[in-house]
Design a protein that fits this description.
Layout: H1 3-24, H2 30-35, E1 49-56, E2 59-66, E3 78-83, E4 87-88, H3 91-102, E5 108-111, H4 115-120, E6 128-134, E7 137-146, E8 153-157, E9 163-167, H5 170-175, H6 179-182, E10 198-203, E11 207-213, E12 216-221, E13 225-226, H7 229-241, E14 246-248, E15 258-263, E16 276-284, E17 287-295, E18 301-305, H8 316-319, E19 332-337, E20 340-345, E21 348-353, E22 356-359, H9 362-374, E23 379-382, H10 385-390, E24 398-404, E25 410-419, E26 422-427, E27 432-436, H11 439-444, E28 464-471, E29 474-481, E30 484-489, E31 493-494, H12 497-508, E32 514-517, E33 531-537, E34 567-577, E35 580-585, E36 591-595, H13 596-602, E37 619-626, E38 629-636, E39 639-642, E40 645-646, H14 649-660, E41 666-670, E42 684-690, E43 697-707, E44 713-718, E45 723-728, H15 729-737
Antiparallel strand pairs: 1-2, 1-6, 2-3, 3-4, 5-9, 6-7, 7-8, 8-9, 10-11, 10-15, 11-12, 12-13, 14-18, 15-16, 16-17, 17-18, 19-20, 19-24, 20-21, 21-22, 23-27, 24-25, 25-26, 26-27, 28-29, 28-33, 29-30, 30-31, 32-36, 33-34, 34-35, 35-36, 37-38, 37-42, 38-39, 39-40, 41-45, 42-43, 43-44, 44-45
């Protein structure tokens, strides 16, 4: 083949490719048609449909898909109504109609139909038609009569003239809608808060106007004051979400009950600068829970639910900013207080005092800002020079400034004088000063310690080796032996595994309930503390990322690391307060509150609460002494005797089960019993004689009740142990009431 021939063939091939591309760009591809095989509407390729016309009786509805220039060929675009009105379409309603066409399936197909058949099927004069345009070609769907078999209705399609189909009744329902169904229900386009320059709200009683300034929103009418941003956001949200439930031809809105105008002078696009206007009238005809509304000056006029526009009932007082501060936590980047700053960084909040910077407690800061937002003004006065001097705001005693992350604005709050009714405050350049509850003064003068990181110790519970508790002048030492804990001072007994682990866990992950002072004062009771806990930990520290899983810490990960020196934590606990007790840790003078659960665990010795239990298999005999009565139970073969005869098996088994599972509800003290314990004249004495174990013989004495009620208990002691126990009242009563 010559070179010239090759060139000619190439030109022809290119021309054909161009022709095919141009020809098929407006046609459906083979692949698209193949995908529709088996459907009633084989040419309905949804992304390519541009127009839909629905005719039913006198109603003609025309829908057109707008495609912007930057949309790809198969992007959906936006549907609009072009007849009988020009309006945006309800995209969901159009989507439902398109779906009913796209997925239309035949329950029965009839081929080779005649004109007579078409007349008999109701297709010659259909009750409704749907015409759609796809790839520049029109296809019409005709809706005929009912199928006599009851399977559905007849349908004909213009591109399949010799066929008819029976489809389900749901297709009829999809077509039986008026124009209102396809009309857009949202009353306004998407509203950007940043575009809004002013908001005007009028009722028959009052009028309010809010303007955006460089410092934020200001209420200009009916008086000048800071405006409440959250109330404005509620209005904007209402405009974005309010929907028509019904369209009306006319209504009397000459004197609306409420009227809202939102001016958008800040919008970059000039088309978006048109003010949004909404007027509300009376009740919607025949709909008790709905009211009439009109959009703009020319409509539409619609019904909306009264609940959806309830935001317009806010009133002037709710448009005024009455809170001490308004900034949300997610907006705040930095807070300046007298003498220090709170600053948000990647890893969380920091307290900055001069050159010193330490971690802050995120929850404490959130609690502080939440409390400030919760404070509402009690009274207002114009911020005249005279009022500022009289209320201590000419030279405020404290000032805080909250800075937003976007640097758009900040909030400054100045603290003035206190009187019997509250404290006076000025927020920024508010034309009004306000009286707030007295707690506002505490919030605005919060010391830096309030925000200190409450996580005081982060160690591993299983690293604990030794715990010393100084309690009432008596030192108690508990040491780990293998995996078990034992009390080694002032007595040698098993420690209570549950309570000791709770104490160790509390120290290993010590977290303050709150910080209260930079240093201790008399009220904190730390000069002569109730408890001093000294805990020693040995072994590798948890990785920072593993702190939340410290109880499951894998020590093997650190085998190759350098040996970690022991850590000794000294916790001093003083007077009780709300939520626990005042405390200090180590050499740090700061006073915080430690949780009440730890206090409850430290109240008595850490000795095992199970030391009162005796297994039945160990017993030779048990004597119950109750006042002047003495009941002796003695082992006899496989049973028990009481006096001259056998003891009741059921009742005796129950009492021995009580003894075997006996667990004290708590402990009281080491050393000799106090007179109030009632050991001199006990309620009950159990004389225990064991055939195995040591000691071979001892007494369990149950003294006076220590507490009554549902949680009642009795003082109890073993004669061989200098430890006081609390024995639950139900257990004690079981032995007192026992009859052999």
């Amino acid at each position: 083949m010559s070179k010239r021939t090759t060139i000619v063939l190439g030109v022809i091939a290119l021309a054909m490719a161009l022709f095919i591309g141009i020809f098929e760009s407006g046609m459906l591809s083979t692949g698209e048609l193949e995908a529709r095989r088996g459907r009633v509407l084989q040419r309905f390729v949804r992304p390519r449909v541009s127009d839909v016309e629905l005719v039913s009786g006198e109603t003609r509805i025309v829908l057109h898909r707008d495609r912007e220039e930057d949309l790809d060929e198969f992007e959906l675009g936006h549907w609009k109504l072009t007849a009988p009105i020009d309006s945006d379409a309800d995209q969901d309603a159009v989507d439902q109609l398109l779906s009913s066409l796209e997925w239309l399936e035949a329950r029965r197909s009839l081929r080779g139909i005649t004109d007579e058949d078409r007349t008999r099927f109701g297709l010659a004069e259909p009750r409704a038609t749907v015409r759609f345009t796809v790839a520049g070609e029109d296809v019409t769907v005709a809706l005929g009569g009912e199928d006599p078999r009851g399977e559905g209705v007849y349908v004909g399609v213009s591109d399949r003239p010799d066929e008819a189909f029976v489809v389900g009744q749901d297709f009829v329902e999809a077509l039986q809608h008026d124009v209102a169904h396809f009309r857009r229900k949202e009353l306004f386009d998407s509203l950007r808060s940043a575009d809004v320059s002013a908001v005007e709200l009028s009722t028959q009683q009052e009028r309010a106007r809010v303007e955006r300034t460089e410092g934020g929103w200001m209420l200009r009418e009916p008086y000048e004051a800071l405006a409440r941003t959250s109330s404005l956001e509620e209005i904007f949200s209402m405009l974005r979400e309010v929907r028509a439930t019904r369209f009306l031809d006319e209504a009397d809105l000459a004197q609306p009950s409420r009227e809202l105008v939102v001016r958008r002078d800040r919008a970059e696009n000039e088309a978006n600068r048109t003010p949004l206007r909404l007027r509300i009238g009376g009740a919607c005809p025949g709909r008790e829970a709905e009211v009439v509304a009109m959009v703009g000056d020319e409509g539409p006029i619609v019904c909306v639910t009264a609940e959806s526009i309830s935001t317009l009932d806010l009133g002037v007082d709710r448009l005024r900013e009455s809170r001490l501060v308004a900034m949300r936590d997610d907006e705040m980047e930095r807070a300046e207080l007298d003498g220090y700053q709170l600053r948000r960084e990647d890893m969380g909040w920091q307290i900055v005092q001069g050159e010193d910077e330490r971690a802050a407690d995120d929850d404490a800061i959130a609690d502080w800002t939440n409390q400030m937002r919760a404070q509402e003004a009690l009274a207002y006065e114009p911020a005249t020079d005279e009022a500022l001097r009289a209320r201590g705001l000419a030279t405020p005693r404290a000032t805080i400034t909250l800075h937003r992350s976007d640097q758009e604005r900040s909030e400054r709050v100045a603290l003035g004088a206190t009187d019997a009714d509250g404290v006076w405050v000025r927020r920024g350049d508010d034309p009004q000063i306000a009286r707030f509850p007295l707690v506002a003064a505490e919030l605005l003068t919060a010391p830096a310690i309030r925000f200190r990181d409450r996580r005081l110790v982060r160690d591993v519970e299983t690293n604990a080796q030794d715990v010393v508790v100084l309690r009432g002048g008596v030192e108690e030492r508990v040491q780990k032996r293998g995996t078990e804990w034992r009390v080694t001072t002032p007595v040698e007994v098993a420690a209570d595994g549950v309570v000791t682990r709770d104490v160790v866990r509390a120290v290993a992950s010590l977290t303050a309930v709150r910080f209260v002072a930079d240093r201790a004062s008399a009220e904190h009771g730390l000069e002569r503390p109730r408890f001093v806990v000294t805990a020693t930990f040995e072994g590798p520290l948890p990785d920072e990322d593993d702190a939340a899983e410290e109880h499951d810490h894998d020590h093997g990960e650190h085998e190759d690391e350098e040996e970690t020196p022991p850590r000794v934590f000294v916790l001093r606990i003083g007077a009780a307060t709300e939520g626990g007790a005042f405390a200090q840790l180590g050499e740090d003078p700061a006073v915080f509150v430690v949780a009440s659960d730890l206090i409850a665990d430290l109240e008595g010795p850490l000795a095992s609460r199970d030391l009162l239990a005796v297994e039945t298999s160990e017993l030779e005999s048990l004597v119950l002494v109750r006042g002047g009565e003495r009941v002796e139970l003695r082992r006899e073969g496989d049973g028990w005797t009481a006096g001259q005869g056998p003891a009741d098996e059921a009742r005796t088994t129950l009492i021995f089960d009580r003894l075997a599972s006996m667990r004290a509800v708590g402990t009281t003290r080491y050393g000799e019993p106090a007179p109030a314990d009632g050991m001199a004249s006990p309620t009950l004495v159990l004389e225990i004689h064991r055939r195995t174990g040591t000691p071979e013989q001892y007494e369990l004495r149950v003294g006076a009740p220590g507490a009554a009620g549902a949680d009642g208990w009795y003082h109890a002691r073993r004669s061989d142990l200098a430890i006081g126990f609390r024995l639950g009242a139900p257990v004690a009563r079981a032995f007192v009431d026992y009859q052999p």
